[in-house]
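HUMAN: Would you supply a protein with fold tokens?

ASSISTANT:
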Amino acid sequence: MTCVPEPDAQDLGYTRHPEMWMDDGNLELIADNRVAFRVHRSVITRKSNVFNDMFSFPQPPHAQNTSGCIVIHLPDSPEDLFYFLDAIYDARKYCFSMEKRPTWPAVRALLLLGEKYDAEDLREEAMLCLRRHYPKDVEEWDKLRKNGGSFILGKEDVLAIEIANLARLERLPEFHLPALYDCCRLPEETLTLGALREDGAGERVRLDDDDVAACLEARKGLRSVLTTNVEDLFEVTPCDIYDEFYCPSPHRCIPATQNIQYQHEKAQTDDMVSDLGYSALEPLEERIASTFGEACERCIEFYQKRYAESRQELRNKLPEYITVPPY
């Protein structure tokens, strides 16, 4: 039986990827039976254990095309495969920071294909991006909110839903929970019907049905803890907590904070909670400074720190407020 080599990718009607077509490459990867990538086998196998294992056995003659390249068909999307290959060739480009933030498609591709093809370095970079996007420490959370609101770039509502969906798919509760918290903050119509993508094509990205139900239920707990934490601001003064609290102007601050405490009405809490919706993890520094504006800076910091401590407790106990259905 004679083995006939495969024709070139272009002869079969595949589109060559313009940024990932190496003329001297010896491996062609066909993504989704549409787009062809020509790369170097030695480069890919050095980063991916799956590809390395794949080539640990001799390849049959018919696996090559007329140019002598080995041809492999992959079910992955061309976009995902491009990011994966580009990161292998140019790893420095994918070392992200606050000055060089990643887009969501890049993070998604590195996580998915890094896992699928056992490219640990790429997967770990994606995990690091997600940890920076959802820090466990509220001080880091607040710094992020002051610097644009997110580490990963993307349309806010779409981003929250897609991270939640991918975290569920990959069984990553570390990111699933805070992504669902972000979904809880979305308008109910967006939460139930989905969010429109930026491309204007009318396509919606929808949250998993079980997660929609979890978010709608979690809203009750988030609103309750938010109310409790805001109410707590009006129930104490610095002197109630510390016997020797240092205040540079006690003659002014003690009467001012006590006056706010004594004159507090439920309407003030309801007003603040109404403005925040379900954003129980978001900082209230400016609102607190405005509310206790007659006090000195140190006393205002006391209230801001106290509220931050309550938010940190919520962040630590997020699984108690958002119940993730079984994977």
Summary: The chain has three domains: 10-76, 91-218, 222-318. Residues 1-5 have pLDDT under 50 and may be disordered. The first strand starts at residue 15 and ends at 21.
